[in-house]
Write a sequence for this structure.
């Protein structure tokens, strides 16, 4: 019997302050695209173990993180924390790619 993917969270807070929050966002995006972890990792050009570590809030190399974000259609915006806190970032549904 084929393994079922767990359900994704309908909306995600895009403001990330911990590795666990980043991992949850990445996992949710992968599940929204109905990708198994090994398929997503292959598509992103990283190992399944690296993607698993990332999704579980463990540190990964920055170049690998950027590969995963690009592969899953995610991006990153950086700026001074005080300035970013003033920007209204609503919870948003992740769309399927």
């Amino acid at each position: 019997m084929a393994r079922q993917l767990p359900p994704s969270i309908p909306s995600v807070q895009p403001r990330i302050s911990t590795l666990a929050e980043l991992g949850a966002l990445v996992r949710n995006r992968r599940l929204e695209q109905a990708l198994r972890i090994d398929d997503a990792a292959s598509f992103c050009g990283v190992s399944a173990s690296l993607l698993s570590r990332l999704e579980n809030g463990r540190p990964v190399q920055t170049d690998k993180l950027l590969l995963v974000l690009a592969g899953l259609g995610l991006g990153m915006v950086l700026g001074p924390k005080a300035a970013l806190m003033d920007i209204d970032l609503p919870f948003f549904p992740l769309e399927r790619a």
Notes: Residues 19-85 form a domain with the 434 Repressor (Amino-terminal Domain) fold (CATH 1.10.260.40). The chain has a mean pLDDT of 83. Residues 19-32 form the longest helix (14 residues). Helices lie at 19-32, 37-44, 48-55, 62-71, 81-85.
